[in-house]
């Protein structure tokens, strides 16, 4: 069994470090926290995951690494790992507002824009809204991202901010005023891509699958075993062709997309 595990882990490690070929205009990043036992205590293990859409319009799972923390040092190490393996052509980085990610992306992917996940942003705003007003505020926020242009979205955002202040939801208004621009970067790209480039949902579904498959384990004995199992599941997903054709006919428009 030990020799069999070594063979399996060797294949997993080779997959994790394989060369990344071609360009990947859209890059999705997220972190997942697992549990491991350590000296009789249960501690967190952070796994950082990346998927992307290539120039032909197909999604690929690019990699997974263990991170010490979901901060700039952790993201910098992960992005350096991806770039060293050949990641290039990234025009849009889609993620939640992870601490240190924007700064790390600027260091390793200087030509890429940052798109804050619209869904996660809504949840952040809702945390400052009375439960009886969440539905109302949800419609207000969705109206911003339903506009036909960036200029119209900016104008709608200003209206929403004013309405929130008038409704005495100052903290929600402040958050929208400070960060809504981070959720509007997708307007710089072809409109046929907007629905899938403004949220991190494609990667979120993969993360849910990892959680489902690892839930039976409970706390892992160490970080490496946790990484191996999660990477094995990602390799299985990638190897069985679980991809979706996000772009297709309009893939060639990516390189020319600018504000």
From TrEMBL:
Recorded coiled-coil stretches: none
Family annotation (InterPro entries): Transposase_mutator (IPR001207)
Function: Required for the transposition of the insertion element.
Protein name as annotated: Mutator family transposase
Keyword DNA-binding: yes
Record key words, sorted: DNA recombination, DNA-binding, Transposable element, Transposition
Source organism of this protein record: Bradyrhizobium yuanmingense
UniProt KW DNA-binding keyword: yes
Top-level taxon of origin: Bacteria
NCBIfam families reported in the protein's UniProt record: transpos_IS256
Family statement: Belongs to the transposase mutator family.
